UniProtKB/TrEMBL annotation:
Enzyme class: lyase
CDD domains reported for this sequence: PCD_DCoH
Superkingdom, taxonomy of origin: Eukaryota
Keyword Cell cycle belongs to the record: no
GO molecular-function term, one example from the UniProt record: 4-alpha-hydroxytetrahydrobiopterin dehydratase activity
Family as reported in the entry's similarity comment: Belongs to the pterin-4-alpha-carbinolamine dehydratase family.
Descriptive protein name: 4a-hydroxytetrahydrobiopterin dehydratase
Length: 164
């Protein structure tokens, strides 16, 4: 699932099929929010968290892909079950509202990081470069907290809600 967060609103895109992943990554690269993660926060997150891969994920190859992403701007969430980062662009035309997007990739079932999450994160990086991504500015990590609260309150999208 891809979730895009802005401190005053939440945009949510349901689970993606493999055929729509590239389109979603392109949309994600031009999405909006107001956040950047400082280099210190990025270093702390990527160095202190251990990844929790989803069941069935080949950890050796996934770890190699993950290391490559973590050496860039991606960070692990506190639980190690998701990757997240922000993207900044020069102009309004390259984005939806402002000039920065916050993206978090994770797999809900089975829970944890999967190779699809890693592939889509890499696709976001590639598309963001094509769109002229700028170096993110240091801004409060408040959006990460908003993302955590929204994820918790939204529940698990992969488990049908019981009708009552």
């Amino acid at each position: 699932m891809l979730r895009l967060f802005k401190s005053s609103q939440l945009h949510s895109v349901p689970s993606l099929s493999p055929t729509s992943a590239a389109a979603a990554a392109a949309a994600a690269a031009t999405a909006t929010s107001r956040i950047a993660i400082t280099p210190l926060a990025r270093a702390m997150s990527s160095s202190t968290q251990k990844p929790r891969f989803s069941e069935g994920t080949e950890e050796a190859s996934a770890s190699s892909s993950l290391d490559s992403l973590l050496s860039g701007h991606w960070t692990l969430t506190n639980e190690g079950e998701a990757l997240e980062r922000s993207f900044k662009f020069k102009t309004f035309a390259k984005t939806w509202v402002y000039n920065t997007a916050f993206i978090r990739w994770t797999t809900h079932h089975p829970k944890g990081l999967s190779t699809k999450d890693l592939e889509l994160a890499a696709a976001c990086d590639s598309i963001a470069r094509d769109f002229g991504e700028l170096e993110p500015e240091p801004v409060s990590c408040e959006v990460r907290s908003v993302a955590d609260r929204a994820t918790t309150s939204a529940g698990d999208c992969c488990i049908p809600k019981k009708s009552g």
